[in-house]
Amino acid sequence: MIRKIDHIGIAVTSIGEVLPLYTEILGLPHLGTEEVPEQKVRVAMVKAGEVKIELLEALTPDSPIAKFIRERGEGIHHIALRTDDIRGALARLKAAGLRLIHEEPGTRGGEYAIAFIHPRSTRRVLIELCERS
Ligand code: ZN
Q1: Residue 22 — left, alpha, or beta (φ > 0 → left; ψ -120 to 50 → alpha)?
Q2: Mean pLDDT of all residues in 1-30
Q3: What's the pLDDT score for residue 133?
Q4: Which residues of 70-93 are buried (b: 16+ CB within 10 A; e: fewer)?
Q5: Domain at 2-132: CATH code
Q6: Rounded to an integer, what distance in angstroms lies between the CA atom of residue 98 and that of residue 92?
Q7: Distance 105 CA to ligand 1 centre (A)
Q8: CA atoms 83, 52, 11, 59: torsion sign
Q9: What is the CA(23)–ligand 1 centre distance, in A?
């Protein structure tokens, strides 16, 4: 059902300040930065072998990332697991009693489908499922 870790999401106050840590100091390639207005975030992707690191910066004070940083500070925000069948995975997790944030997967940039599992069901680890088309 789950194939591997796709990426690790990290909440930051400023991508501009944090990106050089990953690119210049750690030497990882920067895959690109984009704004995702529907999620109120700016996202920078860095490649660490097979796994990506997703730096998330809030676009607005009511962004979930702004709220996360206010409550818990900067740091690891979520782990994204790749699946070939996001709808099947969501149905199975729901049947197992997990609380879903998204019953229906959303899309990001039309490129891949994503859905989050509520951290109350997973011992405070926010898990994202993603399926690339
Ligand atoms: Zn993510």
Answers
A1: alpha
A2: 97
A3: 74
A4: eeeeeeebbbbbbbeebeebbeeb
A5: 3.10.180.10
A6: 9
A7: 13
A8: negative
A9: 19
Q: Ligand 1 centre from 8 Cα, in Å?
A: 7
Share of the chain above pLDDT 70, in %: 98
Distance CA 30, CA 72 (A): 26
Distance CA 126, CA 50 (A): 21
Comparing 126 with 39, the larger pLDDT belongs to: 126
Per the DSSP assignment, residues forming a β-bridge with 46 are: 30, 53
Question: What distance in angstroms lies between residue 119's CA and the mean position of ligand 1's atoms?
Answer: 14
pLDDT, one tens digit per residue, over 85-126 is 999 999 999 999 999 998 899 887 677 899 999 999 999 999
3-state class (DSSP) for residue 89: helix
